[in-house]
Write a structure and sequence with these properties.
Blueprint: H1 3-14, E1 21-25, H2 27-34, H3 39-44, E2 47-52, E3 60-69, H4 74-81, E4 86-93, H5 99-108, E5 114-119, E6 125-128, E7 131-133, H6 149-165, E8 171-174, H7 179-188, E9 201-204, H8 221-228
Length: about 240
């Protein structure tokens, strides 16, 4: 199964709630959804509006809110729950919430409008059937030997999400000469311990040691459009 199919399946499961609904996203999940689900699919499933969690909107108490958010958007969600604009909230997070975050969510639900809280491991941008990115601007500090703290957290959460989507508990192997790969491997490996002797292998490489591949050019329309016009999230 391709990654695009996995993410599309999560989104279709979210919006399977009966009745009129509004899909509420944040800055990142809006991009995650847009690359795998056209608006026509949303309309066919009675999604009357796709909105951002940080935008001002008029109350729609007769509609249900299906929220697909990253855990980092929890403060904005808690703020809305204190003055809810929808009758019911179905919450889906791209990664697991810790105990403190769950307590904050429960405390904000004054009106008891939350119906369910689930994890939908789709914390990555699917560009092709087996290609994904996290859209992290810069992963290391200037010296190149240490991660930017926020980038390391994002990469760890993103890889965990990819592995869960693939239903994989791999053996993690990394490039020994790269401190960045070693640091990431040590954070990812304990999250999903391998099971059985036939566990898959996750290989982590440092792109900076491969100077040739970025210079190669594919003779495809996709490569040509990317060179001449530029593509971001397949757009």
């Amino acid at each position: 199964m391709s990654l695009a199919t996995c993410v599309r399946g999560y989104i279709q499961e979210m919006v399977a709630v009966a009745g009129l609904k509004v899909l509420v996203l944040d800055a990142e999940t809006a991009g995650i959804v847009s690359v795998v689900c056209p608006m026509s699919d949303m309309l066919a499933r009675d999604v009357v509006l796709v909105d951002r969690i940080d935008s001002g909107r008029n109350p729609l108490p007769e509609a249900k809110a299906v929220c697909f958010l990253r855990p980092s958007s929890l403060p904005a969600l808690c703020k809305e729950l204190k003055a809810p604009k929808f009758g019911h909230y179905y919450l889906y997070f791209t990664n697991v919430l810790d105990g403190e975050q769950l307590d904050a969510l429960a405390a904000a639900d004054i009106s008891q409008c939350i119906v369910e809280v689930k994890e939908a491991p789709a914390d990555f941008f699917v560009l092709d059937s087996h290609l994904f990115v996290f859209n992290t601007p810069a992963i290391s500090e200037r010296a190149g030997a240490a991660w930017e703290p926020a980038a390391l957290v994002r990469a760890t959460q993103g890889l965990r999400s990819v592995l869960l989507a693939c239903n994989a508990r791999p053996i993690v192997r990394y490039q020994a000469s790269s401190p960045l790969c070693e640091m990431l491997a040590r954070r990812v490996a304990p999250l999903l311990p391998p099971e059985g002797a036939t566990a898959p292998v996750l290989l982590l490489f440092d792109r900076r040691t491969d100077a040739l591949t970025p210079l190669l050019h594919q003779f495809t329309y996709q490569a040509m459009v990317h060179d001449l016009l530029g593509i971001s999230n397949n757009r």
